[in-house]
From TrEMBL:
Pfam families: Glycos_transf_2 (PF00535). This is Glycosyltransferase 2-like domain-containing protein. PANTHER family: RHAMNOSYLTRANSFERASE WBBL. Residues 298-417 form the Glycosyltransferase 2-like domain. InterPro entries: Glyco_trans_2-like, Nucleotide-diphossugar_trans.
């Protein structure tokens, strides 16, 4: 039904006048609701945010008009990249056919014909229906290409050629094989590409993936086709099922967490709407990993006054958190409100809570480093005082991931009190610095390719709610209290954790509210703005590689907005 609705909506979109299409899109109920929520809760929003009327519609697959611009740019880039040297038959094409359809097979073969001089062999993996129709395939006159029809993919051995795995009904971009040939000597590991969808012979709905993201694969099976296997590689699929490619990649990673694959940020495969599989969303990946629930977690909570938010934060942790083995370390940074001071004195009577004083000027990094030295746990939790627990298993889920040997920092999905997303991962490069992915999306919105609801790897996560082992914290020297006293210290910390060979992770199952900037406030004075600018410059100079290309993002997506819309400027 959802596929039929998608096709119908696409057809309707094509016949409507452009002005009406724009009107309908802007009149969308959810967008109107979104705008109203923003306006009603301005106190929670950064003062320099763009009004909804100036931001591209959130939560949409990129528009056809935007994608047309992107397609022209990609085609031009592919042409420039294609080698002008003598052509060579260097590709072994494997076409998986879970369901027999000669019409769909014809679509795939036709897309090969225009570039067949790069193909050495074709394997078609299906049942006996194809065997009886092999003569029809041979009628294609695939000159110089060895054609094999097999019923069991496991009998296909290691290839002397670069191997490309796709599904029946999918079409190759007209420059896919020339580009692959030009990259042949650079493809030394399993590699995947971006894809789009063909509806009524028109390309639409681009899937611009991140670089290798094993936890996103576990939660959404995002790599489903267009996989390149280098010469002599042993990776292979075991059946021709619809999910076999993603399943095989999952097993490779789960058996070896150092398994790594590469990504080509070009759309080389066009998927047919009739063969499209629904993207998995929100699968709990922690079930794949065994962890100890006996590890002591030290939840470090700095505060300056802020009794209203601090008391809610502490109460929600104590009353809702299912994970039992934790302590709360509150760091009082010069509070002078009598009610707050009285609360801090009384709360220490709880067996899980201690309060320590930091009587120096505000320095977020130094405060947390100081508290970490007093923490008893082998796992540290950096928690803002304006956090409020939603999901009781938030800490259990995060602890399960932080104990994995290849994982460094674990962040949570955070919401504004108005149920809009405040944090679902940090993307480097937004605004020249860093920003929050899917910011202001509704709580239940799946986001782009289900990424707003799925556990996945990010280069960085916010320290408003972050877990890390004490060993890793100490290995990188904690937070940078010299250059980043207030802003971006969490981003810098996460990137230094990456240098330990770890991956950082957003745990989408850990859901909490974040009453952002209530305690510290906005950058609203000349002094604060000067300090903030200095910290931005430090981030840009120190981590220019990630700002130029965040592996958790895609160069085809914009850095102007936080909504995963298409990049239109060069």
């Amino acid at each position: 039904m959802s596929r039929m609705l998608a096709v119908a909506a696409h057809k309707l979109n094509k016949i409507l006048p452009n002005s009406l299409r724009i009107f309908l899109r802007r009149s969308n109920f959810f967008l109107a609701k979104y705008a109203a929520l923003i306006q009603a809760n301005r106190q929670y929003i950064d003062p320099n945010y763009l009004p909804p009327s100036e931001v591209p519609e959130y939560g949409y697959f990129p528009s056809d008009d935007d994608y047309n611009i992107n397609m022209e740019r990609q085609t031009k880039t592919l042409k420039l990249a294609i080698s002008t040297s003598e052509k060579s038959r260097s590709v072994s094409l494997v076409i998986l056919m879970p369901e027999f359809s000669f019409a769909k097979l014809k679509l795939t073969i036709d897309s090969v014909l225009v570039q067949q001089e790069y193909v050495a062999e074709i394997y078609i993996v299906s049942d006996e229906n194809v065997l009886t129709n092999k003569w029809m395939l041979e009628a294609y006159h695939l000159t110089g290409i060895d054609l094999f029809v097999v019923s069991d993919v496991s009998i296909i051995g290691i290839s002397e050629y670069l191997r490309l795995l796709i599904y029946c009904g999918e079409q190759l971009h007209e420059f896919a094989l020339p580009y692959v040939y030009s990259m042949e000597n650079h493809i030394n590991t399993v590699t995947y590409c971006d894809t789009d969808i063909v509806i009524d012979n028109e390309r639409t709905l681009p899937h611009f993936y991140s670089d290798w993201n094993p936890d996103l694969l576990l939660s959404t099976s995002y790599i489903r086709t267009g996989v390149l296997i280098p010469k002599g590689a042993t990776f292979k699929v075991m059946s021709n099922g619809f999910d076999e490619i993603s399943s095989s990649l999952k097993q490779e990673y789960l058996s070896n967490n150092q398994f790594h694959i590469e990504h080509i940020p070009f759309v080389l495969i066009h998927r047919h709407i009739d063969t499209l599989r629904t993207i998995d969303s929100g699968e709990d990946t922690s079930e794949h990993f065994h962890y100890s629930d006996e590890k002591l977690v030290s939840l470090i909570i700095p505060t300056y006054n802020g009794l209203d938010v601090l008391s809610v934060c502490i109460s929600s942790i104590l009353e809702k958190t299912l994970y039992e083995n934790y302590e709360i370390v509150i760091i009082d940074n010069n509070s002078n409100d009598p009610k707050t001071l009285a609360y801090l004195d009384s709360i220490q009577e709880h067996s899980k809570i201690s309060v320590i004083r930091y009587p120096k000027p505000f320095n977020y990094s130094a405060i947390n480093n100081f508290a970490a030295m007093h923490a008893k746990g082998s796992i540290l939790g950096l928690i803002n005082n304006d956090i409020e627990v939603i999901s009781p298993d938030w800490l259990s889920k995060m602890v399960a991931h932080v104990q994995r040997p290849d994982i460094g920092c674990v962040g949570a999905k955070l919401l504004y009190p108005n149920e809009l997303v405040q944090h679902a991962g940090v993307v480097l490069g937004y605004g020249g610095g860093a920003g929050h992915a899917h910011k202001f999306f509704p709580r239940e919105h799946p986001g782009y390719l289900a990424r707003a609801k799925s556990t996945q790897n990010f280069s960085a996560v916010t320290a408003a709610c972050l877990l890390v082992t004490k060993d890793d914290f100490e290995a990188v020297g904690g937070l940078n209290e010299v250059d980043l006293t207030v802003a971006f210290n969490d981003v810098d910390f996460c990137l230094r954790i990456l240098n330990l060979g770890r991956r950082n992770l957003l745990c989408a199952e850990a859901l909490l509210y974040h009453h952002e900037s209530i305690s510290r406030g906005h950058e609203d004075t000349p002094e604060k703005q000067a300090r903030f600018l200095k910290e931005v410059v430090y981030l840009q100079k120190t981590w220019s590689k990630y700002i130029a290309h965040d592996p958790a993002y895609n160069p085809n997506l914009t850095l102007k907005y936080e909504n995963f819309s298409i990049k239109l400027d060069k």
